[in-house]
Amino acid sequence: MAEVAFRQLRKQYPPRRGSAPVEVLKGIDLEVQDGEFLVLVGPSGCGKSTLLRLLAGLEAPSQGQVHVGGRDVTSLPPSRRDVAMVFQSYALYPHLTVAGNIAFGLRRSAARRPRQQLHDWLARTLPFVQSPREQRIAERVQQVAAMLDLAHLLDRLPKELSGGQKQRVALGRAIAREPAVFLMDEPLSNLDAKLRGDTRRQIVELQRQLGVTTLYVTHDQVEAMTMGHRIAVLNGGRLQQLGTPMELYDHPANLFVAQFIGSPPMNLLPVEVVSPEQVLLAGKRVVADPALAPVLNAYIGKQLMLGLRPERLRIAPATNRNLPAEVVQVEALGHELLVRCRLQEFDQVVQVRTRADLLLQPEQRCHLELESQGWTLFGEDGDALRPAEPAQASPHLPSLPA
Ligand code: ADP
Ligand code: MG
To answer: Which CATH number do you get for residue 312?
Structure first.
């Protein structure tokens, strides 16, 4: 097991004909703790896979260093970094059985020693010689197969497996070697929704049991929210925010994180600050989150963007404090409704998460009440304004399994 650190890591690809060089990672500083499950999330093309490949040693950085377990591994080949990677495409060896695939890394890692080579040669030539190493490998394969519910499939070839089973074999191959760090690059993207949920829980449980430092890449914010001890949000080759799922949800560092984390995304509403206690929103005075009074005090008379999660808006009676709106669309999810409403004063749609038993129809007039808690205010540059930066100032971890 080991901690991982990226220091001022940059990756530039050389220019293609006629075009400028592309800088894919623009200075990443990130530390992953020993035993932590860190999810790297961001839109397609933001550099997630590149970052994993730099850690695995499949690419070399243009600048900066990669550390694993306190060791600078930047110039070491993949085989000497003690990391194991699971890919979206599974990348199983088609001619090897499930057992052969799981054992692959184990065989390869010891095969270089001369004494081992002699043993292997004897065992191959004389069937009654059971090499002690082969015995250990067989035991480890059984162990891993039992963990991943693959014991009944050990003799099958990859083409005889379902997508979910292939993915478990790919995981098994990574686990078998007991690496210091697991790297997983969108390992669930090829699975259907139900299986994705099951496998997601299985990976979380496995990581908890094994306690191996894990970097898990996804573009799916639900995976990010549910799997990681912490989430690193990446956009355009830059780290946007690093924090626990709830820190990111409650205190997004900027508009990008606010919109990327959470589904439906955070509502964004332009407001004008009238006092430390009140803002003007769609022509109405609204009571602001008292926690933000010190911030508002510094912005009186200015325009800001108010971010409010859909569960902090309510369909409410018509009073002169509530905001008049019109229902645009209602999605019934069984346990709750997602209601899209258009605010009357300015032509802006907001999303409201509300009780499932409300009777609402499209085009119906309604009123919205805003909770005066859980506000995030964004300045002109898109960064969140905070009295004291809670998410950033406390890089504490949730307690990791011992
Ligand atoms: P992600 O995994 O977040 O979707 P990637 O790390 O795969 O993103 O890629 C980031 C960017 O780098 C993309 O714009 C991609 O086109 C570019 N890129 C990746 N590999 C290469 C390469 N070998 N040469 C040039 N550009 C590349
Ligand atoms: Mg990728």
So the answer is: 2.40.50.140
Residue 342 lies in a domain: yes
| pLDDT of residue 32 exceeding 70 | yes
- What is the whole-number distance in angstroms between the Cα of residue 188 and the centre of ligand 2? 12
* Total domains, the chain: 2
- Which numbered atom of ligand 1 lies nearest the CA of 51? 6
Whether 242 is in a domain gets the answer: yes
- Of the candidates 218, 250, 282, which is a domain's last residue? 250
Report residue 115 as tokens: 């004494």
Look up the domain containing 157 and give its range: 4-14+22-250
| 52 C-alpha to ligand 2 centroid (Å) | 9
List the residue whose alpha carbon is closest to atom 21 of ligand 1: 13
Pocket of ligand 1 (CB under 6 A): 13, 22, 24, 42, 44-50
What residue ranges in 203-258 does DSSP mark as E strands?
A: 213-218, 230-235, 238-243
Q: Which of 332, 285, 340, 289 is nearest to 310 (CA)?
A: 340
The protein residue with its alpha carbon nearest to ligand 1, atom 1, reads: 45
Q: What value does the mean pLDDT of the chain take?
A: 90
Length of the chain equals: 402
187 and 282 assigned to the same domain:
no
Burial environment of residue 92 by CB neighbours within 10 A (0 to 12, 13 to 18, 19 or more): buried
Query: Ligand 2 mean position to 48 CA, how many Å?
Result: 6
45 or 118, greater pLDDT:
45
Task: Please give the number of the atom of ligand 1 that sits closest to the Cα of 234.
Answer: 3
Please report whether residue 394 resides in a domain: no
Same domain, 379 and 236: no
* Alpha carbon distance 104, 389 (integer Å): 48
pTM, 2 dp: 0.89
Ligand nearest to the CA of 58: 1
Q: What is the pLDDT of residues 68-123, one digit of tens each?
A: 999 999 999 998 999 999 988 888 999 999 999 999 988 876 555 676 677 777 77
Ligand 2 centroid – CA 46 distance (Å)? 8
Residue 191 is predicted with a pLDDT of: 87
Residues 368 and 219 both lie in one domain: no
376 is written with which tokens?
A: 């995030």
pLDDT at site 302: 96
pLDDT tens digits, one per residue of 113-127: 676 677 777 777 776
